Amino acid sequence: MHSKQQYTEAIKTEAKRLGFLSCGISKAEFLEEEASRLEKWLNKNMHGEMSYMENHFDKRLDPRLLVDGAKSVISLLLNYFPEETQSQDTFKISKYAYGQDYHHVIKSKLRQLQNFISEEIGEVSGRAFVDSAPVLDKAWAAKSGLGWIGKHSNLLTQQVGSFYFIAELIVDLELEYDSPVTDHCGTCTACIDACPTEAIVEPYVVDGSKCISYFTIELKNEIPKEFHGKFEDWAFGCDICQDVCPWNKFSKPHREPLFNPHLDLLSMTKKDWEEITEDVFKKVFQKSAVKRTKFSGLKRNIEFLK
């Protein structure tokens, strides 16, 4: 293999073989449009207590500061839409947390993709990212033609909606680049109308400090009393803006066994949640992202929902 086109095709074919939904590639450069948007968002304190969002401002906008000599950002999507969901009348957790922690699952696939690149193409330096580093993954995925950023600020595609994770490989290899797709939200405001805490303050702008996911996962202090009764039974994360999005009619169940829920999870009633012990928490969420909120955080959230 020796041409940009061959390298690009080989990487995309391997990404598909590893189970990724899709793969798009864009040139590693400064994200001009995102700079003022991010600055404005931070200045309005829409990140709440997520102070880490203020760190590494420059690195968030320029991948060449994360990887020396970076030439390409390879963006990847991995589906997590479940076959079965929790019953209606129970405390709910975000669908992305049903199975094992996605960080580990995706990191392993990214390592395999990196190994493939080294073996097939040669000495290529790069780093893998799964939302735990200063990378604006939605912006890169949109730039790489994998979808458009919807009014709820999630990446959307016409074919499969928005229930997928985004990851990146930033490499010092020049590849063929994809073009962005057009926005297909139109006049729809389903996500804005449905958000019970009015976190989508205007189309395409989410005030993170008002989001149910922020309160139930990121916020370490007490949840403000004025939001009592507005969480619609969400105990960890929230999928409302995605659930109501018309494009998610096209979501198809994932084929990743590691994302299948613990058998006990789907049958848990409100009473089970209210009486959950630390042992049950450890058993059901042993490898899940729910561990981020810890047992005490989950108990706090459930108390708040009563």
Describe the structure.
The protein has 306 residues and is an alpha+beta fold. Helix content is 32%, strand content 13%. The strands form four sheets. Strands 1-2-7-4 form a four-stranded antiparallel β-sheet, sandwiched between helices. The longest helix is centred in the middle third of the chain and has 19 residues. It is found in: Cytoplasm. GO terms for molecular function: 4 iron, 4 sulfur cluster binding; cobalamin binding; epoxyqueuosine reductase activity; metal ion binding. Its EC number is 1.17.99.6.
How many H/I helices? 11
Radius of gyration: 20 Å
Strand content: 5-15%
What's the total number of strands? 10
Structural class: alpha+beta
Sheet with the most strands, sense and barrel status = 4 strands, antiparallel
Low-pLDDT runs: none
Query: Strand order within the widest sheet?
Result: 1-2-7-4
Estimated helix fraction: 25-40%
The average pLDDT value, as a whole number, equals: 95
What's the number of structural domains? 1
Order of helices and strands: HEHHEEHEHEEEHEEHEHHHH
First and last CA, distance: 61 Å
Q: How would you describe the shape?
A: globular
